[in-house]
Write a structure and sequence with these properties.
- By secondary structure, the chain is mainly beta.
- 9% of the residues lie in helices and 42% in strands.
- It is built from two helices and 17 strands.
- Strands 1, 2, 3, 4, 5, 6, 7, 8, 11, 12, 13, 14 and 17 form a 13-stranded antiparallel beta sheet that branches.
Length: 196
């Protein structure tokens, strides 16, 4: 039973019982423990996810301020974390990427919550006796919910879902007229997708 190695995992919780500081040992040849930190906003939603840092050879608790100091030394950067922001309904509206250069440039993913407008989303049928789609008008305004996601470089993806939660349209910028539809004849067919 010589040379038995084990990974130790210790989870610290904040005053409200939420997982905050995680400590893992047994993964580093130096014997040091690896730490990760999660913070929360006033509503209890995930706020900051810190990049991992190396601690000491014992799994001691580390305060948020101490963690930020270790992070600054480790990455030579004061923004060693990603940060989430939410709207009044608790929906994610932006998520930043770690790194001072990204924070200073305002680089982050952004999300908007939308509904379809009149004539904005075409409706299609896929008759079983044909190989192609047939346009069947448009979805009525306000009958689809959507999410518009913009990445750090400004590229967007818009996804619309019906009231049952089925995705009916995915539109990506950079694809002229490119739309991926997943609803056929008003029912969800997960194995049939059409790119238009």
């Amino acid at each position: 039973e010589e040379n038995i190695k084990a990974v130790k995992n210790i989870q610290y919780y904040d005053g409200l019982g939420r997982p905050a500081l995680n400590v893992r040992g047994g993964v580093s040849p130096s014997g040091k423990y690896s730490y990760t930190l999660q913070t929360y906003d006033y509503a209890g939603l995930s706020k900051e996810q810190w990049l991992p840092v190396a601690g000491g050879v014992t799994p001691d608790f580390m305060s948020n301020d101490t963690y930020a100091t270790y992070s600054g030394f480790t990455y030579n950067d004061s923004f060693g974390y990603s940060e989430n922001k939410y709207d009044a309904l608790g929906r994610l509206i932006s998520s930043s990427t770690p790194g001072e250069a990204w924070h200073s440039a305002g680089k982050m993913t952004r999300k908007r919550y939308i509904t379809n407008t009149t004539g904005s989303v075409k409706r299609y049928k896929a008759p079983l006796d044909k190989i192609s789609l047939i346009q069947d008008g448009h979805y009525a305004a306000g009958t689809l919910t959507g999410e518009e996601t913009e990445d750090e470089d400004g590229h967007t993806v818009i996804e619309y879902k019906d009231m049952s939660g089925h995705t009916v349209l995915e539109r990506r910028d950079g694809c002229p007229g490119g739309e991926l539809r997943r609803e056929l004849n008003g029912e969800e067919f997960p194995f049939f997708n059409y790119s238009l």
